[in-house]
Amino acid sequence: MDRTAQLTALRTAPDIAYDPPPDAASAHVRAARVLADNWTGGSTVPARSLYPHQWSWDSAFIAIGLRHVSPLRAQTEMETLLGAQWDDGRIPHIVFNPSVPLDAYFPSPDFWRSSTAGRAAGAPRTVQTSGIVQPPVHALAAWLVHRADPGLSRARGFLTRVYPRLAAWHRYLLHRRDLGGGGLASVVHPWEQGMDNSPAWDAPLARVTPAPARTFRRADLDHGSPEDRPTDLDYGRYVRLAADYRDGGYADGGGAFAVEDPAFNALLIASEQALARIARELGATGSARQARAERLTAALIERTWDPARGIFLCRDVRGGGLIPERCVSGLIPLLLPTLPRDIADRLVRTAHGPHFGLGGTTRLAPSYDLLGEAFDPHRYWRGPAWFNTGWLLERGLRVHGEHQRAGALRAALLELAVASDFAEYVDPYTGAACGATGFGWTAALTLDLLHDDTPPAGGAAVGEAGDIEEFKGVKGGDRG
Ligand code: 9WN
Q1: SS3 state of residue 44
Q2: How far is the CA of 129 from the centre of ligand 1 (A)?
Q3: pLDDT tens-digit profile of 325-336?
């Protein structure tokens, strides 16, 4: 065991609260074990060696799976993350574990200097965090966690406590991050969108002067192969953007990089719909939130839908214009039940066509266009398939009544997650494992897929009425 793993090791092995099948090698037990191994007492690390702290959207996905194992731990996961929220509403993308050595991950707390450089923006004093954000999956996760055990949730006042924080988070994104002026939230760093090395960033990043390689030391290369990870030049640009943001006190508005991303905004919309449900559970009407979700959906279509390509694109707010790269983020709006039917149908066709190969040449949807110039089946976010995007697409297919295709995708996700030992990502053609194994959201979303007992193919099923109905929102229509 390396030093980081020792320091973050479990104090006590948590119980598995649900009733797993007796076969210790079953997918349920193996996935639950990953989450147990990655649990640090208040949250779950994405991967012990490569990512030894708490990550924002990882924690949301992890909570979605963890709720089937321990609703209490799932609530705690969210509460720990929200405990590190800044006064301006932002939820930082990393919450650092103080017992992990500084050199275990770069950029470390002494790079971000949140409690000093972030003071004006209201960074917490007692916990060290990064200063950027990640996709807003949190309200959706909180609602799904609540639904796993409403009695426990009500007894602990879970929603009552998290709702104001989630509302402040959305306010931050909608007001401070509307850098394009069209109603959508912009990301100000590739790490914020979560698909760090996507070819969609190449053009906007080209304007950024890289920080010299000698000024930082990459810890990711201690664990991952350089051919699979972003290049030093990419890292130099990531560092420059983050350092400039920090040196400006994490104030929003003036940075060199600002992009409206369809997945980030689709997740904001899905979470706004979830906040409407939380508001209703707490006795309010939620109607203003539902109306806002509909306005955001209209803005998403107006600003990022490309009818000719049949996919949503990223909009480069600084360079002005759509970035003509087909990335999996452009398929994610399928998860929105309120998407017009013709757009949903086009997205389904694009996902199953030559650019993403679902149901044909690929096992899982690649992160980037199979026919794109920058495609590489192994390099970070430039081709490999991730399980969180697969899970979102599976839900999107089901929400839009594509049960057979959703069933096929679900079966592939489950098979490859287990066969790859819950890999961080896989080769989209072969399913071969890449990156870390024992990866948090891969295990968690496996549990979520296993928990849903919808038959792999066929019409709407009895077991489906729960989460998917909740996910659909007011206007959702099942075409199954
Ligand atoms: C930077 C933790 C995170 C994920 C991201 C993924 C990767 C970090 C990195 O790991 O990003 O945040 O060091 O590359 O791209 O989606 O949240 O799992």
Answers
A1: strand
A2: 14
A3: 999 999 999 999
